[in-house]
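User: quick one
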Amino acid sequence: MPDKIHPLKELMRKRIVVLDGAMGTMIQRRKLSEQDYRGKRFRDWQGKDLKGCLELLNLTQPQVVEEIHAEYLEAGADIIETNTFSATTIGLHDFLFQGEPTSGRKDQEFFQRVVDDVDLRALVREMNLAAATIARRAGDRAIKETGKHRLVGGAIGPLPVAASMSPDVNDPGFRAVTFDQLRKSYFDQIGALAEGGVDLLFVETVFDTLNGKAALFAVADVFEKTGKRIPLVVSGTVTDKAGRTLSGQTVEAFLISIAHAKPLVVALNCSLGPDEMNSFIDELARVAPFYVGAYPNAGLPDPLSETGFPETPETLTPKLKHWAENGWLNLVGGCCGTTPDQIASRGRFRGARPSRVLAKASRFRELPKILPPARRAIRSDACPISSNPGRFTPSLFRHGAESICLKRRGRSY
Ligand SMILES: [Zn+2]
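Assistant: Done. Structure below.
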């Protein structure tokens, strides 16, 4: 980061910052048809249906995406995220890659073809550039109309395949993708988002931390290539009631695993809904040496409820207020099932609540008194966990932080 204070940092020092809500939920409400998704350009696309390929709308129905951004901005969102959650070669392969697996299942040979596919890569670039331009245009218009800062975050989702888990229960050692394939796929997306002029990068809904790390590696690659850094938000998702990600990490372990990327904000999003997330947000706010955010879903999908999700602005807002009143938050928004109504209700409490004070994460300073000297000597590489030994607690090391650190030698990502 250059010396100049980033506008988001400046805002978070003053108050809780409001992020937008779900893009997918808002698109689904429009009930677009297969032909709508295809538009003119993909009218003759062969072989696969394109309905549900939300990111394609950046090219075929850009006005729909822009209208949704505008609704969130009108509701008071300080940050809008680009419609690019799955806009990667791997994320879009189900819709836009014509090749088939040769071995009967999607394996590393298959995904190598996906990440190398020239046409798909060009489409990914175009889609991310278009999405950044659409969001930028909506944001800039809101700035002009209101005179208030509005920021564009580039959304980088988790991908449909995991690097550390097998999709085949009968073959637990199988891995469908390699780390380098994920990294390459993310690199194409992040490069285009950066080129499109986003203010922030959101590596979000991290359920497999190794996928998240591939994204962070790609972020570092893009920074190195462009010579320009963009502040990061890294957000994990907790998928069981014991507070673990799908790849089995606790909130603390997740935090340690991504701390080397020095995010401006670390967050939890989506997950099990606000009720189940209470203690995890508390934990994150206690230990994180970064600004903290939360953008939960509106509960788990419920086909019997009117909106498809159980939480309404009336039920969700008091729960988030509780988090804010406890001083846990710097950034709040919504994930699956949330709408501009939900975001407008966040806006009503943001001004009245002070944001979380960063210095509260003091547990990270306790470590030097506890660790034996030999360990301190080992940890000497450029990783922030190693170079700031005072900031991490012994419990973090039980989750394997030291081994993560040592693996990072020679490179900070
Ligand atoms: Zn979600």
